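User: I'm curious whether this sequence folds into something compact or stays loose and floppy. Could you predict its structure so I can see for myself?
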Amino acid sequence: MTKIAIIEDDHTISQMYRMKFESDGYDVQVAENGKVGIQLVEDWAPDIVLLDLMMPEMNGDESLREIRSKDWGKTVPIIILTNMGKEEAPRELEALNVSDYIVKAEMTPRQVVDKVKRVLGL
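Assistant: Here's the prediction. I'll summarize afterward.
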């Protein structure tokens, strides 16, 4: 079963995506901030990570840098899932091997699932 980690501080949003992915047969774990998300990715080894940028404790770009700095995090596909427009996002994201960038307000959960499938080659 494909494992998806969702790192998102908004509980309503994370649960909406969790339910959508689980109804499509995915195994989903959620972390409520970047610090917890890093630990989740390290311990659980998901097949893909959906990462919000604006979060308490540790924001998404800091989390992404930390994940990519570890051997276990160098190759996991990571999709940025945020409401921050791409032009507002930190420029270094591209250098950190981001698989895709999704603005939540511009896509339905079904479209997000489809994009994840494409990134994973499913």
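Summary: The chain has a mean pLDDT of 93. The helical segments are 11-23, 34-44, 60-68, 109-120.
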